[in-house]
Design goal:
Mean pLDDT: 85
Structural class: alpha/beta
Shape: globular
Largest sheet: 6 strands, mixed
Distance between the termini: 39 Å
Number of helices: 11
Order of helices and strands: EEEHEEHEHHHHEHEHEEHHH
Radius of gyration: 19 Å
Oligomer: single chain
Length: 258
């Protein structure tokens, strides 16, 4: 199987439906972006791939990878896939950092949890990955504490930590939300470089400028329901797609087509 197949996925508790019969095929080695208004269920969808279901909610449906249902398999395969093959950048990665631990310590802990590696090699690898996400003065960054750095810098450091683990599938939840235009362009370049390396990117975003620049396939989620699934070029020509959004998103769309 050359795709991550989400089939009839529903998550609810009898009163509230977070997702309703989501059907999607995520091709491996390509970019798929999930877009939609706030509260549409985008983050819930990607977290379900990681096996992280909100407490008190039940899940129905299947998520197949390599002909194994990740929702049903409780053995070593799912643990290995979610621990090594899939990397996840949360929407607020800053909360993950221990303020009392230097950045190099976060790299070392993450790398040593997956492989036997020396501290010297950890530092070398950390510097390489920080450069990949557009960060300079890597020695200074590695010796800094998280509270000394900006949210945007921490967001890119978290991405660098994920890249050091060499996952083949990367789930990025609003990876540019804390970045300015210049640093957003660096993340765009990083994503394009990763795609060129054959990585699978599952991107969650409401930034239509970013989505337009990256291209790829787009999955539109609204109120927990799949509304559209098509290449971004097709969606931008679909008036029903653009009419569905409020004036704020319309303004963003108008910036795209100028």
């Amino acid at each position: 199987m050359t795709e991550l197949w989400i089939n009839q996925l529903s998550i609810g508790n009898g009163e509230t439906n977070l997702l309703h019969n989501i059907q999607a095929r995520i091709p491996l080695g390509e970019l798929t972006t999930i877009i939609g208004p706030s509260g549409a269920g985008k983050t819930v969808l990607v977290k379900s791939i990681l096996g992280s279901i909100p407490p008190g909610f039940q899940v129905r449906g299947t998520i197949f990878l390599d002909q194994v249902d990740l929702l049903q398999d409780k053995g070593s395969y799912s643990q290995q896939v979610r621990g090594k093959r899939i990397g996840y950048l949360p929407q607020n990665p800053m909360a993950i950092f221990n303020p009392r631990q230097r950045i190099i310590g976060h790299f070392i802990d993450s790398l040593k949890s997956h492989q036997k590696i020396s501290r010297e090699l950890c530092r070398k690898l950390a510097g390489e990955k920080l450069g990949l996400v557009g960060l300079a003065h890597t020695d200074r960054l590695l010796d800094a504490f998280p509270w000394e750095l900006s949210g945007g810098t921490l967001q890119r450091i978290m991405l660098a930590i994920l890249l050091a683990l060499e996952p083949s599938i990367l789930i990025l939840d609003e990876p540019t939300s804390a970045l300015d235009a210049y640093h957003t362009s660096r993340v765009v370049k990083t994503i394009k470089d990763l795609l060129a390396m054959g990585k699978t990117i599952l991107l969650v975003s409401h930034d239509y400028v970013l989505v337009r620049e990256l291209g790829g396939h787009v999955l539109v989620i609204e109120e927990g329901i799949r509304k559209e699934s098509a290449p971004i070029g097709e969606l931008l020509l679909n008036s029903q797609f653009t009419d569905r959004y409020d004036s704020f998103l319309q303004d963003r769309f108008e910036r795209l087509v100028k």
